[in-house]
Amino acid sequence: MLKERLLTALLAGVALLAGLWFLDTAGVGVLLGVVTLLAAYEWSGLAMRRPSARLAFPALAALFGWASLLLPLSAVMAVAIIWWIWAAGEVFWFCDRVSPVWRYAEVKYLSGLLILVPAWRGCLALKAQDPLRPVLLIWLLAMVWAADSVAYFAGRAFGRRRLAPRVSPGKTVEGALAGIAGAAIIGGIGASWLGISELGTGGGALLGAAVAMASIVGDLLESKAKRLVAVKDSGRLLPGHGGILDRIDALTAAVPLFVWTMRYLGVR
Q1: Does residue 95 carry a pLDDT above 70?
Q2: Is-above-0.90 flag for pTM?
Q3: How far is CA 201 from CA 130, 181, 260, 261, in A?
Q4: In the 8-state DSSP scheme, what is residue 237?
Q5: How many angstroms separate the Cα of 14 from the Cα of each of 9, 20, 39, 137?
Q6: Could you give the maximum distance between any two Cα atoms of the chain, in Å?
Q7: Span 21-42, pLDDT tens digits
């Protein structure tokens, strides 16, 4: 299973990075749009299993994605950040219970839009800032991937205390701390290498740590959604990983924080 997981991650990662680097902004929008629609279909299965609803939700996500292009980017990211703060409470406060708000399928559908649409819009904006060298977007991916990978292996090797046992029993405090440290290192190195004077090495490390913490919330929220409907994976498209949503859940929470920070600092 580990070999299959690593091979899938390698092939998918190389394909994604190649697409982000060599496609123009419109092409990346389509590429990430397809990924988003597949994830939307998987999310609809976690929110409600009626076939008609499952097919309608990706279309609704596409409509909201188009509408998001008409709104100020900072506003879209701010709304998403507020949503993720609420989502953190949903994960850590209510644990394996459903909050009074999130028990309704309609609210879960709205949650799916707030998870997926801002992430797509934010990634597209990062690509559009420098279509020929989307280094900010790749830096963000590197921080999220570092947090996830380091947390996975450190948790397996040293994990003792469960981070959220009633939501995702496999995740540990030790793994999470290691993942945050790994993302902080990538954040500091990236800020220095890219010459982002607004951050510096220390600020980049703090940003990496914040990105990692946001990614943990994204991961745990999807784990809770799966646990509530008693499924292990959101789909079966990626061998060793499950579905598309299983691979981008951490990223969806990290994108709004990263993009809003870059806009606030004026980093182009």
Answers
A1: no
A2: yes
A3: 22, 14, 19, 15
A4: S
A5: 8, 10, 20, 14
A6: 51
A7: 999 999 999 999 999 999 999 9
C-alpha span between 149 and 191 (Å, rounded):
20
Q: What kind and span of H or E run contains 92? A: helix 73-92
Q: Which two tokens mark 110?
A: 């709205």
DSSP string for residues in 24-85: -HHHHHHHHHHHHHHHHHHHHHHH---HHHHHHHHHHHHHHHHHHTTS-HHHHHHHHHHHHH
The 10 Å CB-count burial string (b at 16+, else e) for 54-83 is: beebbebbbebbeebeeeebeebbebbbeb
Mean pLDDT of 215-232: 88
- Using the structure block, give the residue that is written with the tokens 């870059």: 262
- Residues 6+ away with beta carbon under 8 Å from 242: 232, 233, 234, 235, 236
Q: Which residue has the tokens 């609210």?
A: 107
Are 144 and 251 in contact by the 8 Å Cβ rule? The answer is yes
